[in-house]
Amino acid sequence: MSKKLAIPVIVALLVACPAWAEKKEQAKFKSVEVKRFVHSEGVELSPEFPDFLYAQLRKELQKTRLFQEIVGEGETVAAADAERSLVLTGSVLEYKKGSVAKQVLVGFGSGRRAMKTHVTLTHRNTKDALLDKDLVVKTPSTRDQKLLANFMAKKIANQIKNALAKKGA
């Protein structure tokens, strides 16, 4: 490629790159309020699990760049921003501790730790559901519940991203 042709190509790329960055940075929604997940009766998780899942959810939702801000549970949102704000709620329906012995002796995914949650994402002002789904994640039973919370938070963030893309929101 000649030098005369290379210079305009480089200049065009330098001019176009900031424009792409600006498009990526614009969030589709003003905010999302993340509420702590509640446990169904009989679900035996550690007492710190809801706090850890809450923190992981906030972190994963921030990574999606769909929201300008992640609002904590109970924080207020301005009335003008309510139209572009969402609320995420959920509950842990089932938790299976898994079995290290089964995992080691049988293998092939048996004996794994599993958690089933129900997730609901709604508009703040209209209460219309954008996502209303049961999700299941599994982890090795040799790992702690923090890994389970991490996997669940990632799965929820991906489901939200997919649901909002399908709805064209």
Your description of this structure?
- The structure is a single chain.
- The protein is an alpha/beta fold.
- The chain has a single domain, classed as Rossmann fold (3-Layer(aba) Sandwich), CATH 3.40.50.10610.
- The protein has four helices and six strands.
- It has helices at 3-25, 49-64, 100-105, 145-167, and strands at 29-34, 38-39, 67-71, 85-96, 113-123, 129-139.
- Strands 1, 2, 3, 4, 5 and 6 form a six-stranded mixed beta sheet that branches.
- Helix 2 runs parallel beside helix 4 (145-167).
- The longest helix has 23 residues, at 3-25.
- The protein is extended.
- The chain starts with a helix and ends with a helix.
- The relative contact order is 0.16.
- The model has no long low-confidence stretch (mean pLDDT 81).
In short:
The chain has four helices and six strands, in the order αββαββαββα. It is an alpha/beta fold and 169 residues long.
In terms of topology, how is this protein built?
Elements: H1 3-25, E1 29-34, E2 38-39, H2 49-64, E3 67-71, E4 85-96, H3 100-105, E5 113-123, E6 129-139, H4 145-167
Helix pairs in contact: 2-4
Number of helices: 4
Percentage of residues in DSSP E strands: 25-35%
Q: Regions with pLDDT < 50 over 5+ consecutive residues?
A: none
Q: Tell me the domain tally.
A: 1
Mean pLDDT rating: 81
Note the overall shape. extended
N to C succession of SSEs: HEEHEEHEEH
CATH superfamily: ABC-type transport auxiliary lipoprotein component
- Helical percent range? 40-55%
- What's the level 1 CATH class? Alpha Beta
Characterize the largest beta sheet: strand count, sense, and whether it forms a barrel: 6 strands, mixed
Number of strands: 6
CATH architecture: 3-Layer(aba) Sandwich
CATH topology: Rossmann fold
| Alpha carbon gyration radius | 21 Å
- Give the terminus-to-terminus CA distance: 44 Å
- Structural class of the helices, strands and pairings? alpha/beta
